[in-house]
Amino acid sequence: MPNNISLKDQHLESRIYGARTITAILIVLALLAVVLMRYSKLQITEYEKYRVESERNRVQLQPLPPKRGLIFDRNGVLLADNRPSYLLSIVSERVADLDATLAELQALLPISESDLEKFHKKRKWSRAYEAVPLRFHLTEDERARLAVNRHRMPGVIVDARLLRHYPHGELFSHALGYVGRINEQESYDLDEVDYRGTFHIGKVGVEKYYEDILHGEVGYQNVETNAHGRVLRVLERHDPIPGADLVLNLDIAVQQAAFDALGDRRGAVVAIDTATGGVLALVSKPGYDTNLFVNGISSKNYSALRDSLDVPLFNRAVQGQYPPGSTIKPMMAMAGLQSGLVTPETTVPDPGWYKLPGDSRRYRDWILRIRGTGHAPRVDLHMALRESCDVYFYDLGRRLTIDRMYEYLHPFGFGERTGLDTTSEQRGVLPSTRWKREARAQVWYPGETISASIGQGYMLSTPLQLAMATSVIATRGLRHPPRFLYSINGERVVEPDLEPIVTEDAYWDAVYRGMRAVVHESKGTAKKLAKGIQYEMAGKTGTSQVIGIPQNAVYNEADVAERHRHHGLFIAFAPLDAPTIAVAIIVENGGGSSVASPIARHVIDAWLLRDAG
Amino acid sequence: MGDYVRQLPQGSADMARPPSFASRFHIDVPLLLLLLALTTYGLFVLYSASGGQMSAVIRQGRFFLIAYVVMIGLAQIRLQTFARAAPWLYAVGVAALVAVAFVGVGAKGAQRWLEIAGFRFQPAEILKLSVPLALAWYLADRTLPPRLKYLVGSLALLGLPAFLILRQPDLGTALLIAASGFFVLFMAGIGWRYILGAVVVAFSSAWPVWQFVLKDYQKQRILTMLNPEGDKLGAGWNIIQSKTAIGSGGWSGKGWLQGTQSHLDFLPESHTDFIIAVLAEEFGLRGVLILMGLYLLILLRGFWIGVQAQTSFGRIIAGSLTLTFFVYIFVNMGMVAGLLPVVGVPLPLVSAGGTSVVTLMAGFGILMAVSTERRMVTA
Questions:
Q1: Measured between CA atoms, how close is A193 to chain B, in angstroms?
Q2: For a disulfide at B89, which of A265, B130, B167, B311, Cβ 3.0-4.6 Å?
Q3: Hey, of B80, B244, B282, which one would you mutate to test binding to chain A, going by the most A CBs within 10 A of its CB?
Q4: Which of B350, B343, B286, B355 is nearest to B48 (CA)?
């Protein structure tokens, strides 16, 4: 080394080294300045942006969905409940590889195609960082399996929430309706804030009609979460306001009686509390288990319901429009009495058929086919009601004319929605010359008045309308709009009555007597009902010709014969001296009213004798 | 001389005293104080970054203890001894790298470790010191600035280990080692034309390197640096989260142990490579400035030691080690802030980890040896 040193120019070397050091220091300072500028940019210039960003990382605004209001019957029996249910949802923004995660989840627990389909659909229109539900109703076993594996799957969330449950399932299917998962269309129409964190909404029936009241108000909490989405603490919380509890006028005993009495037949029963218009029972058969819809019905189950020839999803009680047949006669009688065209004493000759003046066509009475003659040489109002004489009403109808018939029948609620607090109610048809001109662009033919006067032809009514009309008779003209709702959160809700029908008491008495005779006199068309009866009942039978079934379903050979049989109808109210219940029943293809009338007895028994039994 | 001093009542009294503790043990006091300040600061940040675990601090403290012992130990060694040992250290290091290629242990697709008697170590770590030492040894005896043939020889000395490490593959370390070698050449005074030439070559080789040398994951890192938002949950996640951590710290920070990004696990590698983000989040730009100030003082002290060195070897090694230390700082702080692609470079003396701390402090031990060699000569 000493040798080498002598060869080196020490002076030059340190001069170069000094220069290089200065260069190095300058470069170091320059690069440190670059770094410093970068940090200043992040920490000073863009501070606000990153502060917000880190806050958003840390704090999550979690919606707290409100508890849906409960639904009770008039006795406090729970009809719609909320039950805790565990659900699996995914925040896709936190998932690195969604397909891989879904595949992994599928290996852990069953996830159906329809679950996946719904998940993907919902994901498309959900907000960023929103948990999208994938599976509801996790079993304990599934939850355990998820808990073990969750750490490997960021963005996968399992939490409990309250889901609708219908303890009575099918019994109240058409009365209550159901909630179901919010679909895409609904999500556009809904208030985005109110429904944050809520996956379900009333789809039909009372559940839909009172959605606003049942839903409640969403709350929220600011929570601190870590990178894995786990909530560490709640920073701020605004509790949700639970939806209001509803008490309905429904009476489970009456509903059950109607449901059982209808048995396996297709048809509908509506029972109304005449004092208030409250709906005591509303049954449409076949029904379906409403619980199927809460968690998203499988497409297989749904198509089974949708495609069934029996149209179980169709609410016959409010959507079904049937010719009222002879059940219109008490209201027709009232029209005759009010118009002065008949008195209780007026008689009409009855050969078993009727002819319009100047027309050779014979309009037959139903009895002609059976006896070959009329009910009696001359028929008065009492007999006409008791024995359901067509000729009497043909004559009355002709004299009344269709437009006055409209005028008198309309106040009973025909041809117009009753306004029941439910969905999909139909208005039926109460024909008039004007109606025919507007709906069919045709003139009214006198023969059509004849059909209309016994509730056939164009005339259509829903079982609900019939029940309301029956209630109007039972109350001697009071018109309470039918109502499911009794109270909201314990507060009685009273709807204003419609303007009553004011007329002579004697007229009501005459119709009462006639309807009483239907059940209690030996020639009454429903005299079988009187057997063992503990109260007096007023009723009216009806049979209506089948024009078609409510949906354009494909007939299968075996069904055709059965499905062409007449519908059986029956309306009734009781007890006669102080009516409290009015009932309307239709049994599709029942053949006649004899299958419908016993149902009324069961329903009214359940109501009137509820304390006795 | 001693007698002369003694006659000056108010002169530099210390010169008259027997050698102080510091000089007896070859300790550069300013450097030691700066390092103590830095490592203490680092432990505070680490305590927070590791989620308030004292155990992590104790563990790191133990590494520091070992590292300080190594530093002071190396400071006792005469520079000639380093020069003499340099080629052997280099040979051992390269041999170990070759061994790694054949019998190395790997993790995550890279074969970087050697396992001897149950101890795992990265031979590349030895090279971080032995490459500059060997180059300094190789050049110090020649006339400086080095002639072309020695330059070629240096490049060969430098290229061999860099190539071996690149094959492991470990691009980051290979580049760092290449840089440390380059700093030796730079401080030895190679002509600017060579430096410019190297820069031109580097730029013109960018495309072929991208095409043929870089592995997909390495390309990905570069792409991610350029556009972290392109892959928010994958490779971009780290950078987005570290930038968020840094930015949200603002000027004064969220406070010690209050950093949400790191404490809520949003920040990856928060106690190792990304620890600067924790510091920036909790102590703000103020804290970053303090850290950079400490680093700058250490760097300046390093350069000062180089300038004061009496031998070419000492000068060159002091300057190049200082610059290498700077590269660590720059690369780490740059990558965490999204300026540079993510490579596995820890923040010197702050990031948790034993190996890098020991290697760095060994480097400072050599610096102290250079520094005190100078004093002993003047004394």
A1: 27
A2: B130
A3: B244
A4: B350
| Side chain identity at residue A101, one-letter code | T
What is the β-pairing status of strands A71-72 and A246-248?
parallel
pLDDT at residue B61 is higher than 80 = yes
Tokens encoding B133: 């030492």
* Nearest-angstrom CA–CA distance, B302 and B275: 24
d(CA B298, CA B314): 17
Please report the pLDDT score of residue A142 as a whole number: 87
Tell me the per-residue pLDDT of A284-302, one tens digit each, with 9 for 90 and over: 989 999 888 887 777 788 8
> What's the pLDDT tens digit per position in B219-249?
777 777 666 666 555 667 788 888 999 999 9
Instruction: Let me know if A92 is a catalytic residue.
Output: no
Q: Specify the pLDDT at position B233.
A: 56
User: Does residue A68 come out as left (phi exceeding 0), alpha (psi in the -120 to 50 range) or beta?
Assistant: beta
How many domains does chain B contain in total? 1
Interface of A with B in 31-70 (CB under 8 A): 31-32, 34-36, 38-40, 42-44, 46-47, 49-51, 53-55, 57-58
Amino acid symbol at A531 = K
Neighbours of A113 (CB within 10 A): 9
Flag whether B4 is in a domain. no
Distances (CA, A) of B326 to A14, A24, A466, B359: 22, 10, 94, 14
Q: Report the distance separating Cα B80 and Cα A5, nearest Å.
A: 13
Burial B77-111 (b: 16+ CB within 10 A, else e): bebeebbebbeebbeebbebbeebeeebeeeeebb
- Residue type at position A90: I
Q: How far is CA B302 from CA A30, B318, B366, in A?
A: 17, 6, 11
Residue B226 lies in a domain: yes
* Lowest mean pLDDT, pick from A453-457, A543-547, B350-354: A543-547
Of A16, A24, A40, the CB nearest to B285: A40
Q: How far is A60 from chain B (nearest CA, A)?
A: 13
**Tens-digit pLDDT profile for residues A32-74:** 999 999 999 999 999 999 998 888 878 877 888 899 999 999 9
Answer whether A519's CB lies under 8 Å from A538's CB.
yes
Residue A475 CB partners (closer than 8 Å, separation 6+): A274, A579
Query: Could you give the C-alpha distances from B16 to B6, B8, B10, B371, in angstroms and in order?
Result: 7, 10, 11, 20
Q: Testing the interface with B: which of A3, A34, A56, A57 to mutate, by most B Cβ within 10 A?
A: A57
The ipTM of this complex is 0.90
Please give the residue range of the domain that contains residue B115.
27-378
Is B18 part of any domain?
A: no
Nearest residue to A129 via CA among B202, B329, B232? B232
DSSP-derived pairing of the beta strands A59-64 and A219-225: antiparallel
Angle A326-A328-A329 (CA atoms, 0-180°, nearest 5)? 70
Strand partners, A378: A349
Which residue matches tokens 């990153």? A50
Return the DSSP state at A548: -
Distance between B115 CA and the closest CA of chain A, angstroms:
31
Q: Residue B187: its chain A contacts at CB < 8 A?
A: 17, 20-21, 24
Residue B209 DSSP symbol: I
Q: Is residue B141 part of a domain?
A: yes
Dig out the tokens for B312 from the structure.
């070419």
Residues A484, A279 contacting (CB under 8 angstroms)? yes
How far apart, in whole angstroms, are the C-alpha atoms of residue B146 and residue A237? 73
Supply the pLDDT for residue B110: 64
For A505-516, the pLDDT digits (tens) are: 999 999 999 999
Q: Give the burial string for B327-357 (b: 16+ CB within 10 Å, else e).
A: bbbbbbbbbbbbbbbbbbbbbbbbbbbebbb
